[in-house]
Structures are given as structure tokens and as C-alpha cells.
């Protein structure tokens, strides 16, 4: 039975739901990233960037600067390209206005992801009512490592159904395949655009 956004239980998520998001999202705006290399947001940004995601930093205090080679924007609205997912590294009480801004984007992102310890039920309902997928109190870096075969390379049980080492996507991209069984993955405008760019450049 398919799990819809409206019926999502935000205390637990099917692995297939998380895989669907991580397999199809290609462009991620991280709101609240820190320029300090010892902060969790910086480390998560770099981890996802190293695995082939197009990462866009959003931090009004760092606007116009660069973090890990990427220009920092003050707000989501200033990003000049579509984003598939908004990853929120802000305290729970600051989430609602971020989601409200995300819903004004054209096209809208497909996913609102709130980091570990971040949970805002009102913001989640608002996003789901607009047709977006929502994840709360999870870290995409941790979920990626758990669901890919990456963790099993070092002998840690990742609870995936294969022990085969994941293959790269080629063309120098280090992003690993997360396996099959995705749920509601779909495609997004930004994903389609990226795929066409890759095809045109090959």
C-alpha cells in the first residue's frame, strides 16, 4: 500500500520513503549552514556535496560569501535555480517561516527536510497540504550512510538487503546508489534539468 504525504507518520519513516527522496533529489538548499568546519551543518553539507548532490548554502549572515566553494544566499527566494529539497538546520521555532518562503518558490521544492532534533508540526502540515514530502528529526547524511552500502564497507550493519559494494554513477561523481524499493520518488524539475544537462555534456 502506497504511503502518501498526508498519511505520513513523522515518528517513523519507511526506508523506501527516505530512499525515494535521496535517490531523486539532486539540488539541496541547506538553510542555516555554518561556515565553521567543526559544526554539524558544515560537515553534513560537505558529505552530501562529496556524494554528488548540488548543495546551495543559505545563511543571511554569510550572504555573498562562499562555503565549500558555493555562493551563500541570504534567503531561499534569492537562489536563481530550482531546488528539489530544503534541508533545515535551524531550531524548531524558526522552521515555519522557512517553509512558508519555500512554498512561494516557482517551482516549489519537492521535499522539506528538518534536521535531527528539529520538528515543527504546523510547518509539516502546511508543506504536506501543498503536496510536498516532509521528513523531521532526521539527518540526510546519516540516512544516506545507513541506506547505501557505504556503512557496510567498514563492517557496520547498515540493515540493507545487499552486501555488494555500491557502484558509482560515473563521470567522477562519488554519489552512491541507494538501491531499489523507493517509494514516491518521482522526478522533479531540478532533477530533470540536471539529467538533461548531463546528457547534453556527454
Question: How would the blueprint of this fold be written?
Answer:
Elements: H1 15-24, E1 27-31, H2 40-50, E2 54-58, E3 66-67, E4 70-71, E5 85-88, H3 95-102, E6 111-114, H4 121-129, E7 133-135, H5 140-147, E8 168-170, E9 173-176, H6 189-201
Parallel strand pairs: 1-2, 1-5, 5-6, 6-7
Antiparallel strand pairs: 3-4, 8-9
Helix pairs in contact: 1-5, 3-4
- Just name the CATH architecture: 3-Layer(aba) Sandwich
Q: What is the fold named in CATH at topology level? A: Rossmann fold
What is the rounded Rg?
A: 16 Å
Strand order of the largest sheet: 2-1-5-6-7
Q: Output the number of helix runs.
A: 6
> Overall 3D geometry?
globular
Number of domain modules: 1
Number of strands: 9
CATH superfamily: NAD(P)-binding Rossmann-like Domain
Descriptive notes:
By secondary structure, the chain is α/β, with parallel strands linked by helices. It has a single domain (14-201), classed as NAD(P)-binding Rossmann-like Domain (Rossmann fold, 3-Layer(aba) Sandwich). It is built from six helices and nine strands; from the N terminus they run H-E-H-E-E-E-E-H-E-H-E-H-E-E-H. It has helices at residues 15-24, 40-50, 95-102, 121-129, 140-147, 189-201, and strands at 27-31, 54-58, 66-67, 70-71, 85-88, 111-114, 133-135, 168-170, 173-176. The strands form three sheets. A five-stranded parallel sheet has the order 2-1-5-6-7, sandwiched between helices. Strands 3-4 form a two-stranded antiparallel sheet. Helix 3 (95-102) runs parallel beside helix 4. The protein is globular, with a radius of gyration of 16 Å. The protein starts with 14 loop residues before the first helix and ends with a helix. Mean pLDDT is 82; it is low at 1-6, 152-174 and 180-189.
